Amino acid sequence: MDDILLLDAIERYRNGEMSAQEKLFLEELRKKNPDIDQLAVEHLFFLQQLNNVGNIKAYKHSLDEVENKLANEGVIAKKELKGRAKIIFLWKRYRRTIEVAASIAIIVSITAVMIGLKYSDKKVSNITPLVDNKLNEFQSKLDRIENKLDNATMVLPFAKPKFSANFRATGFLIDGSGYLATNSHVINNAKNLIVENTKGDQFIASAVYVNKNTDLAILKITDTSFRKINTLPYSILKASAELGDQIFTLGYPREEVVYGEGYLSAKSGYSGDTSAYQISISVNPGNSGGPVINRNGEVIGIISSKETNADGVVFAVKSKNIYKALEEIKDQEHIKLPLNATVKGLERVQQIKKIEDCVFMVKGN
Amino acid sequence: MNTPEKEQNLLRGLASNDKSAIEAIYRDNYGTIQSFIVKNNGYPEDARDIFQEAMIVLYNKARSESFHLSCQLKTYLYSVCRRLWLKKLVQLQRYNPANESLEEIVAVEEDLEEHQKKDADLSMMEDALKKIGEPCKGILEAYYLQKKTMPEIADLFGYTNADNAKTQKYKCLMRLKKLFFAHYKT
Fold first, then answer.
1. Which of A109, A199, A229, B154 could, after both became Cys, cross-link B165 (CB 3.0–4.6 A)?
2. How far is B156 from chain A (nearest CA, A)?
């Protein structure tokens, strides 16, 4: 008997799709023929195992979602809350070591600063921030035509001030109520800021935090038309990412969202900057401010710049700087970072589908 | 307090992946487990991991045919989490025997052994699925897990008709079985 037919029969038997007669026939066959019986037993067991994988996967997904919900309600302690308790705990345990380490660190950093001062002037010119400052003429022409069209028809789909942007970059939500992270060099000196999602909806935003040292900025969507997103699909990693981690990013080097993937190549950024990572990925002006996400759906950093003369040498601000930033502005802004990555374990295409809604184009002038 | 009937219902909900049942169990029990773990040398995020694992133990138990819960759900979960956490502490070498006190717990050793075996089987299948690669993985998942029909799969994966897709599925299935049993039998 053909194996393919037999397996098919066993599967139909298992799913209860067989008529009583067919069933009887198969059972008879199994009784008479030990080989077939063996195959059936094996296949049924195998299908059982395969099903278990699917069930557990779905179940874990539900667990994650429930956890997220409860964490937002405060039933489950948040990861951020652990800070204080953890510090006390670690302090008690490692006090002596920390003291020794601190004195060494002081000596080393003084030396480093002195060396740094000597060389620092030459280095800066070698990296390019990845903001697209030359939104080319074509774009401004397009804007003019759009403007004319709007005026001609007198139907304004969005009652937004039309303005022509002179840069474009990327940002991503860190709190579904309308807070985004991006680079500080992106919004440098911008008077007006607008963020636009993949559907083309635009919202007015303003900066609530800017730190030029870490190149991190946090924007707040001030537009009332912005609809809150309840659960963000990714989480923000507080710990350090690992060398070789597979990563991907979404950003706006064009007017359309673009996907790129690569890996983490060093744990420090340009000339040993420990607040950044070096990653290998292909990016272009406009990618600045895009999230760097690992396979588990955790944001590990924010794309900021690339080395001008080398291809694929890109620097990204470490995600833990976001936590530091929130600590600094916690009195003014109440920002809740997402705790769990709901896209963990999904296929990449599915992950992107969920994540792209939370990645915005940042424009301004 | 929950009545036995209500607990049975919760467990049935759990077995069918019902989110409201999961949520109810979390609400009733999470706080106790969290404070137990934080008191015993752990962090809140350890509690999340441990509780999730315990929920999987409970899920497997709720789905097994011989299922029978001989004590209150709360006691059971506490016992499982406690056992899991003490094990973890030993692994981390943070274990302090002074933590061992005579609290009311039930024996869960057997359930945990079963859980470990199931977990091992599960990762064997997951490994095998990873190894066969795409499009096989996608096709098999679409058919066996997402219960898509053959014409849908043909459409999704770009086969000209359902029969072609079926032949491909069969080939993939044979490869997966081979990989899985190669590990399983050793």
1. B154
2. 13
Which B residues in the span 45-104 are in contact with A, Cβ-Cβ below 8 Å?
45, 47-48, 52, 55-56, 59, 63
Q: Does A41 contact chain B (CB < 8 Å)?
A: no
The phi-psi region of residue A345 (left if phi > 0; otherwise alpha if psi is between -120 and 50; otherwise beta) is left
Q: Which residues of B touch A349 (CB under 8 A)?
A: none
Nearest CA among B118, B52, B170 for reference residue A10: B170
Residue that has been written with the tokens 């506490």 in this structure: B78
Whether A82 contacts chain B with CB within 8 A: yes
Q: How far apart are CA A213 and CA A215, in angstroms?
A: 5
Whether residues B47 and A50 touch (CB distance < 8 A) is answered with no
The string of pLDDT tens digits covering residues A54-104 is 888 888 888 888 888 888 877 776 654 445 555 655 665 566 667 777 878
**Beta-ladder partners of A217:** A182, A210
Where are chain B's structural domains?
4-107, 111-184
Dist. CA B91–CA B119, nearest whole Å: 18
Least CB–CB distance from B55: residue in A63, A81, A347 = A63
Residue A122: its pLDDT value, please? 46
Report the CATH fold assignment for B111-184: Arc Repressor Mutant, subunit A (1.10.10)
Q: For B170, name the nearest residue in chain A, comparing CA atoms only.
A: A4
Count residue pairs from A and B with Cβ separation < 8 A: 90
Look at residue B31 in the predicted model and tell me its pLDDT: 86
Q: From CA B177, how far away is CA B169, in angstroms rounded?
A: 12
The CA distance from A39 to the nearest CA of chain B, in Å, is 11
Given pLDDT bands bounded at 50, 70 and 90, which one contains residue A219? Answer: very high
Residue-wise pLDDT for A241-287, tens only, equals 889 989 999 999 888 899 999 999 998 888 778 889 999 998 888 89
pLDDT in tens, B142-184: 888 888 888 888 888 888 888 888 888 888 888 888 888 887 7
Q: How many residues does chain B have?
A: 186
Flag the least confident range among A111-115, A225-229, B45-49. Answer: A111-115
Distance from CA of A347 to the nearest CA of B (A): 9
Place of tokens 């833990």: A320
Q: What is the total residue count of chain A?
A: 365
What's the CATH code, domain A130-364? 2.40.10.120
Min Cα–Cα distance to chain A from B86, Å: 19
Q: Cβ contacts (< 8 Å) between A56 and chain B: which residues?
A: 56, 59, 122
Q: Give the H or E element holding residue A348.
A: helix A348-355
The radius of gyration of chain A from alpha carbons, rounded to an integer in Å, stands at 27
Task: Name every chain A residue with its beta carbon within 8 A of the beta carbon of B50.
Answer: none
Q: Which listed CATH number (3.90.320, 3.90.1200, 1.10.1740, 1.10.3470) goes with B4-107?
A: 1.10.1740
Distance, CA of A122 to CA of A273 (rounded, Å): 15
Interchain contact, B23 vs A66, CB within 8 Å: yes
Q: What phi and psi, each to the nearest 5 degrees, are found at residue A274?
A: -80, -5
Complex ipTM: 0.81
